[in-house]
Design brief:
NADP(+) binds at residues 165-167. Pathway: One-carbon metabolism; tetrahydrofolate interconversion. The chain is of the alpha/beta class. The protein has helices at residues 8-28, 44-59, 75-87, 106-111, 124-132, 140-151, 171-180, 195-199, 241-247, 258-277; strands at 4-5, 34-40, 63-69, 93-96, 160-164, 184-188, 204-207, 225-228, 250-251. Bound molecules: NADP nicotinamide-adenine-dinucleotide phosphate. NADP nicotinamide-adenine-dinucleotide phosphate (NAP) is lined by residues 141, 164-167, 169-171, 188-192, 195, 208-211, 229-232, 238, 258-259, 262.
Length: 279
């Protein structure tokens, strides 16, 4: 069996190409799609992510507003900032960079985002819609994982997908999307007692653990399809790439796998939101 390296840059490029004419059309109508990013504090990794998102907007001729709040910002101050962006008609998408400093109630902040601008599917309404299968803007990394599977025409229907991680922005929504696509889904987490045994049964593996090189090739079934959402210091994912590559039939690299598709998905969902404002 041929092994496929699932190239996120190719998938992302395809998404961006599809957006160019849509953005031009909006501009002709006097509307520039705009993503507002909010960063609280000085986490260097978060700063890099926010910069990457802003630059990606600019490269496509979109607008991006970057709001950088100090570490000591309170939950209510953050909510106020979000409300201002909700009321700003030139803003079509709002992204609050996760994680926020620990003294902030992240859930309360996420819930303050207007559902029409929730282009990263972080509100409970956005998540609920995704889970029920009619969500407009699923969380971008889960949507990116589904897009990669679609691009490479990987069958999901009837397959056993094992998702490692259950965070509200990644593990849970990707489990829901895979279930909606007719996979049989097992969602694992830190209290799962027999992870390697469960992974041995997986046709599709999604790694969303936040632990560098955590999943080993020896835990996986021969021929499994591996999507690594992890991104850790040292440019490594949540799977041990070398040993997982040996057993996989298809695998995303880090970098150049899920990451670029996530950003392209964020741009796409912001353009979609802008299109709704233009009608
Ligand atoms: P998170 O909020 O820290 O969640 C990690 C999840 O992994 C939790 O559900 C946790 O279980 C589970 N977990 C921790 N240790 C485990 C273990 N030993 N066995 C099984 N499960 C375990 O992280 P996240 O925000 O979902 O992010 C996950 C990864 O994706 C990170 O590497 C992050 O950098 C990356 N990420 C990438 C992108 C991208 O664009 N590529 C976007 C977002 C995130 P509990 O629920 O029991 O604690």
């Amino acid at each position: 069996m041929d092994k496929i390296v699932l190239d996120g840059n190719v998938v992302a490029q395809e998404i961006r190409e599809g957006l160019k004419t849509r953005i031009e059309k909006l501009k002709k109508n006097g509307l520039i799609p705009c993503l507002a990013t909010i960063l609280v504090g000085d986490n260097p990794a978060s700063e890099t992510y926010v910069k990457m998102k802003g630059n990606a907007c600019k490269r496509l001729g979109m607008k991006s507003i970057r709001v950088h709040l100090p570490e000591e910002t309170s939950t209510s101050e953050l909510v106020e900032t979000i409300k201002e962006l909700n009321n700003d008609n030139s803003v079509h998408g709002i992204l609050l960079q996760h994680p926020v400093p620990p003294h902030i109630d992240e859930r309360t902040a996420f819930e303050a985002i207007d559902i029409r601008k929730d282009v990263d599917g972080v509100t409970s309404t956005g998540y609920g819609q995704t889970a029920l299968g009619f969500g407009e803007y699923p969380s971008c990394t889960p949507a990116a994982i589904m897009k990669i599977l679609e691009h490479y025409q990987i069958q999901i229907d009837g397959k056993h997908a094992v998702v490692v991680g259950r965070s509200p922005i990644l593990g849970k929504p990707v489990s829901a999307l895979l279930l909606n696509a007719n996979a049989t889904v097992t969602t694992c987490h830190s209290r799962t007692s027999n992870l390697p045994e469960i992974l041995k049964l997986a046709d599709i593996v999604v790694a969303a653990v936040g632990k560098p090189e955590f999943i080993k090739g020896s835990w996986l079934k021969d021929g499994s399809i591996i999507l690594d959402a992890g991104y850790n210091e040292g440019n490594v994912g949540d799977i041990d790439y070398k040993t997982c590559y040996e057993v996989a039939s298809a695998i995303t690299p880090v970098p150049g796998g899920v990451g670029p598709v996530t950003i392209a998905t964020l741009l796409k969902q912001t353009v979609e939101s802008a299109e709704k404002y233009s009608v």
